[in-house]
Amino acid sequence: MPLSRIASSSHASNLLKPLSAALSLCRSISSDSTSTLTIETSLPFTSHKCDAPPRAVDTSASELFSFFRDMATMRRMEISADSLYKAKLIRGFCHLYDGQEAVAVGMEAAITKKDAIITAYRDHCTFVGRGGTLLEVFGELMGRTCGGSKGKGGSMHLYRKQASFYGGHGIVGAQIPLGCGLAFAQRYSKEENVTFTLYGDGAANQGQLFEALNMAALWDLPAILVCENNHYGMGTAEWRASKSPAYYKRGDYVPGLKVDGMDVLAVKQACKFAKEHALKNGPFILEMDTYRYHGHSMSDPGSTYRTRDEISGVRQERDPIERVRKLLLAHDIASEKELKDLEKQVRKDVDDAIAKAKESPMPDPSELFTHVYVKGLGAESFGADRKEVRATLP
Amino acid sequence: MATLFHGVGAALTPFSASNKLLLPSPKSESRGAIFLHRSDARVNHAFNLKPATPNQDLFIPNAVATKRETSTKSGHELLLFEALREGLEEEMERDPRVCVMGEDVGHYGGSYKVTKGLAEKYGDLRVLDTPIAENSFTGMGIGAAMTGLRPIVEGMNMGFLLLAFNQISNNCGMLHYTSGGQFTIPIVIRGPGGVGRQLGAEHSQRLESYFQSIPGIQMVACSTPYNAKGLMKAAIRSENPVILFEHVLLYNLKERIPDEEYVLSLEEAEMVRPGEHVTILTYSRMRYHVMQAAKTLVNKGYDPEVIDIRSLKPFDLYTIGCSVKKTHRVLIVEECMRTGGIGASLTAAITENFHDYLDAPIVCLSSQDVPTPYAGTLEEWTVVQPAQIVTAVEQLCQ
């Protein structure tokens, strides 16, 4: 029975649950917190040149709970980044991911930290999903030394090498060949890992995507190209930019799958399916049908090319966090009060991280010249005036 | 880290201390050394020093010193593209992470035969034939380098790498910086460029001037089989992204190189011919035009110091500076365009750093700011010819 029908009745269930410490993130629930729950995705998968995976997804209570917690953290983080930007603590470009959290969280659930992920500039939540801390995110957004790239990259350049997260790239589509290279390296070293290369519906019209697809298919590279289709490429709707908005079919000879990107369980299932496919048969395309509530970036109000009704409509009907909340309540995994307490805790964690990041210093001027070259090159680098700011590159 | 030793200063083998003069025509054999260089670049004085002005009666009728015996020397003779291949093969043997990717590098053996035989030896994945998609296979090389592989991306002609400019500039050059040092990109991007024999405008481009502003990359230009092999090995071993510029017309140069393994320094310039009157800075093919002009100049009584700068980014300001302090006059001869070329940057760098030592303004001879024409006579006039170099030195030394 589709879940949406159960959802509305779950709010009425008022079983008294023992008040476990809502502050601890590791919630001890009943003894069957890790037993398998099978939940159906709300929409079927649409496939291209392959068989669609089953709609029934295996999960567990603790996994669902972690989905909620992670997505709530990401949502809170992005909203706080919005306020920080308006307070002029974050400058330049800031592309927010709220609304799309299910893609990042669902993908993490299906893969390991050895599988590589590379994405474009809307990378804050993907970074957190790969294990990045809130402090590193806010530090980097505000340009402090505690940031993930020591303040030298900014919003669009978050990386986490130890978790195989390869960034964080500003030029639309340029990360796709890089992702192809990551898959090449995985095939070269014969590791049984895959690379998820994320791009948007705007980048789906880039030539380098098709070049990379061709090469990946030619050499059976374990590359999974994931189109996060939020239906707007900057300010242009997808139907105005793409002749064929069926991005999962764009691969032609490469099989593809269209997934409801607002349903974290569907994302998990699709990614798991894609990983198995890629390890055996080469590249795969996933199209995540998702939505962003904010505009393209902070300088875009997001309402000039779409109506506020549309945005609030999606928020009401398809919001990924609300879906998981309903699931948790329906399956008696948590009570409303516990979830609300968890959200309060998340809010506090985010605020603490922001406060700590604000205390972190700006990079020292000598940092201007570090990391231009790798250590060992005894070259000199000059500032613009060529006389004053001068350092020997380490 | 392998020991690096300067090509000129290597005292290991008897002939490695000499730099032969090779005539600009690519097919001729080398015809004897000009000078025997010592490690501190002092000339083996067989004749007196010449003064700055040509009016003295001391002038050398015979510009060539002792003839070298080629039969008793150790080492082996090969062509420049073979030297590149040797360097590449040795590095691939040494490190399994080294791989090559480019158009026609595998089964075809490379359009200039630099990768001939490697695909049979190392397999299709290590010597990868790519489709004609420079942007994405360069990006692929960079992505692979991020994980620790050491790819060598070959552009069939340097001009084609313009299509990959975004990847080279943004991802290759900047990733080490924007990731706060997390990723290194040990990639080598190489290919032939420069004006060839009537190849037309689009296939005669000099990209060193376009790439020189990109922060984070190193650029080197090879000019002899000896430095081609050494620079290739150094570039592969370097943790930084390196762009190795070769020249279409220099692939068939023949030279004897040592049997032992050697690696050159990526940031050092090469002293081709020490002198006293004027410093001539050059690189790649123009080195041979300069040496040809040097013969004429020596006959006229001048003593030019010729330095092959080799390292285009960063400049070896130490060697150049020592030379400027000695001669006080600088002539730059390059194949880049007049506007925004390597010579323009070098002029600025020397002026800023060594202004007090200059007796005359720096003269920079570069190619004309025109697309390279097809007609042979016109093509000759776009690049600097030895006669122009001689005239420039004469004017500079007045």
Key phrases:
heterodimer; A: 394 residues; Rossmann fold; six-stranded mixed beta sheet; two-stranded antiparallel sheet; disordered N terminus; B: 398 residues; seven-stranded mixed beta sheet
Going by CATH, what is the homologous superfamily of chain A? Thiamin diphosphate (ThDP)-binding fold, Pyr/PP domains
Low-confidence stretches of chain B: 1-57, 65-72
Q: The biggest beta sheet of chain B, please?
A: 7 strands, mixed
CATH class of chain A equals Alpha Beta
**Helix share of residues of chain B?**
25-40%
Give the helices and strands of chain A as they follow along the chain.
Answer: HEEEHHEHHHEHEEEHEHEHHHEE
Query: What percent of residues of chain B are in strands?
Result: 15-25%
Q: In the residues of chain A, how many domains can be counted?
A: 1
Catalytic activity (chain A): N(6)-[(R)-lipoyl]-L-lysyl-[protein] + pyruvate + H(+) = N(6)-[(R)-S(8)-acetyldihydrolipoyl]-L-lysyl-[protein] + CO2
Cofactor (chain A): thiamine diphosphate
Keywords (chain A): Oxidoreductase, Pyruvate, Thiamine pyrophosphate
EC number (chain A): 1.2.4.1
Short structural summary:
Chain A is an alpha/beta fold and 394 residues long. Chain A is 39% helix and 13% strand. Chain A has a single domain (3-391), classed as Rossmann fold (3-Layer(aba) Sandwich), CATH 3.40.50.
Structure write-up:
The complex is a heterodimer of chains A (394) and B (398). By secondary structure, chain A is an alpha/beta fold. Chain A has a single domain (3-391), classed as Thiamin diphosphate (ThDP)-binding fold, Pyr/PP domains (Rossmann fold, 3-Layer(aba) Sandwich), CATH 3.40.50. Helices cover 39% and strands 13% of the residues of chain A. Chain A has helices spanning 3-10, 61-86, 101-110, 124-129, 134-141, 175-188, 207-218, 238-241, 264-281, 308-318, 320-330, 336-359; strands at residues 36-40, 46-48, 56-60, 116-118, 195-200, 223-229, 232-233, 236-237, 256-260, 284-289, 380-382, 390-392. In chain A, helix 2 (61-86) packs antiparallel against helix 3 (101-110) and helix 5 (134-141) packs across helix 12. Residues 1-31 and 381-391 of chain A have low confidence and may be disordered. Chain B is an alpha/beta fold. Chain B has eleven helices and 16 strands. Chain B has helices at 80-94, 118-122, 134-146, 165-178, 208-211, 225-237, 286-300, 317-327, 342-354, 376-382, 386-396, and strands at 18-20, 33-36, 76-79, 98-102, 127-129, 150-154, 188-193, 218-221, 242-247, 254-257, 270-273, 278-282, 304-308, 311-313, 330-337, 363-367. In chain B, strands 5-4-6-7-9-8-14 form a seven-stranded mixed sheet, sandwiched between helices. In chain B, helix 3 packs parallel to helix 4 and helix 7 (286-300) packs across helix 11. The model of chain B is unreliable at 1-57 and 65-72 (pLDDT under 50). Chains A and B meet through helix 6 and helix 7 of A and helix 3 and helix 4 of B.
